[in-house]
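Forwarding the complex inputs:
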Amino acid sequence: MTASIRTRDLRKVYDSPAPFAAGIAGYSPMGTPGPKGKAKKSEVIALDGLSLDIEPGVIFGLLGPNGAGKSTTVGILTTRVRPTSGDAQVCGIDVWKEQVRAKRLIGVVQQRPNLDFSLTAREILSFHAAYFGIGSAERAKHAAELLERFQLSSRADELVRGFSGGMMQRLSIARAMMHNPQVLFLDEPSTGLDPQTRLLLWEIIREYNKSGKTVLLTTHNMEEADALCSRIAIVDHGKTIALGSPTELKQSIPGGYLIRARFSGASETLAAKLRQLPGVSEVNADGGGIDIYASRGGPLVGAVVEAASGAGLDLLDVHISEPSLENLFLHHTGRSLRQ
Amino acid sequence: MNWKAFLAMLSRDAHVARRNFVPMVMQTMLQPMLFTFVFGRVLVSGGMMTQSYQDLLIPGVMAITMLMTGVMGVAMPLIAEFQFSREIEDRLLAPMAIEWLAVEKILGGMIQALAAGAVVAPAAWLVLGRGTAVSFSNVAQFACIAILVAMMSSAGGLLLGCSVGQTQIGLLFSMVLAPMIMFGCAYYPWSALAAFPVVQKLVLINPLVYASEGLRGTMTPHVPHMDLALVIGVLAVMNIALIALGLNRFVKKAVG
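Prediction (whole assembly, two chains):
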């Protein structure tokens, strides 16, 4: 079966200042200044050889911190950001060779709502469908259905300028669904939504996926990725660092549990001692802080305290987390997703 | 080419223009009308200008109005749509090559510029007391020049709209549009600049000069004006250049 989304060695290097479409990709320019006299010129590598294969009919999550390259990936797959090199395909169509054909197959919700402020909510949906050649009767019917589904009917005929952030986000998603695309791209869809609206959105995404459509969503919210996605790629610095189902990924964390402990000082002996403890599969020490990956959580703390006092150190702080995608990310990068 | 998408975008622009009709008319028509009244009526009746000045004024006012309508009708929405809110995104994602969206903007601006010209010329004629001798004897020539002027205005609007940010709109008026209007030979014929030979040469880079002189040549042929074949040729070349540059800028601005 042809993959719904396929990328090969995607690279994107932005020259600073970031162009308009880099803003689309949610990218904020940073990087090292160039040589003297060209102080303003700097290069930012947003994607560094990203390859993905996404099967049709799945909800796929791109999980990673801000600036990891998630939005740039979405930008390239949706014709909005030109790749520096590499291939991007949607449903077997090369996005950068056959842009118009590719655009027919995709629906896109970008990170920030980009609604047409000169139009009402209903007009936004209706004109969007008109751009895709849908007849007026069908447009009106489908717009009314989506407005109802997204709980926007009561304000359907108002200009969207006065809408709240959550309403704009809902309308953006409704708009992307107006032409019934095969692949739906959602870039950080639940940012800024209240918990209730988030649940409504998740339900709608699942429903849409059940009709056989592929959904690619980016998020830095582990709960969202866990709740919605059947497959996840964890990206950082423009590369995939882990790929699989949420369960597989969580199982791949050595030991499963993560105990983050902080001691009154650094000691190699302590780290070595901790490695010997039963159930411990990996110990990463960084100054006074030590990350212990183990098959048990709480029951190990007593042994950790004992080992510390044996090394002449005090345990100052300890945090235990259960197997999670957050831990997985931490394991691969040494950083928290929220950092 | 996806004409359905193209026409849907044109109808979107028409819909928005209808919604903003009154402010838009005030923005583009009021100033030329006031100018026509003060210079064409007040100064002429006060004896500070000769009666023949009125003949010169109608094509000039028409050229300025068309220019402003085309530039404002394309540049202002574009500047807003490309800003933080990125309202243009949905149209960039429509199943149509994005260059056609720029072409649609030019066509929309041309229609607005032609409509504004069609309203302002008779309005100015009425304000001037219906005494001026305006001729439409050569319809094909008039239509050709009017269309070229409209195209130049909206293609210029596309280029400016893709080159200027929201914070620079004030500069756009004071640094680009105001000098263009003052040195656009709209309120005087190009030949009147003969006393200032350097200025007379410099203003030749100003597209409005050809718009004013062209409309003058076809509407009031008895007033001194440039050779019309030359005007049409220059307008055509300027149009090609503005469209090429505008499309290039548009694509660069739209795709990262």
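The two ends of chain A are 38 Å apart (CA to CA).
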